[in-house]
Amino acid sequence: MGLRFRPVDATFYDLFTQSADHLIKGADLLAQMLSDGADHAAVATAMRETEHAADETTHEIVRRVNSTFITPFDREDIYSLASGLDDVMDMMDEVVDMILLYEVQVLPTELSDQVEVLQRCAELTAASMPNLRSMKSLEEFWIEINRLENAGDKNHRRILANLFSGDYPTLEVLKLKDIVEGLENSIDAFERVANIVEQIAVKES
Length: 205
Hints:
By secondary structure, this protein is mainly alpha-helical. It has helices at residues 11-34, 40-67, 75-101, 111-128, 139-163, 170-204.
């Protein structure tokens, strides 16, 4: 009697794509938060809903890992990738929350450059998640995310220099510095996701 193998649960690929799609929405909401005349309370509410939806997707990935006999790749890597994607959403949500709670009225226009980097990172991540099925065309993803992270670092230094130029009141500097650091942390979190994907691709190649 021949051996019978259980098929790999391919739902994981769809869930990772879904998780990354939440990040696109989160980055877009962050852009809205920085726009002139934005209803900060309404955007923050929408972001909380998006963050909650992202949490549900993460929980579903974890539930499937715990109940699936054969996973598409190493369980620890699945946990790491799910956690990494979730971390990005949490950090973007934190930035939106700070803008709301700190009642920042005037945001430096340079912050938009960082949000554009975040939006591009989110788009690339969502486009790359389906490629986990074949483990092909992923190298371009982590290389481009690394390039964007470097661009984000340069933006970050420029924004901080402007922030401490003396043009802003001290209290505003303290508030804005937290927001600037939050954006930088969000970009760094995308790079960690890209590093996890690279590790998975190397193991599976």
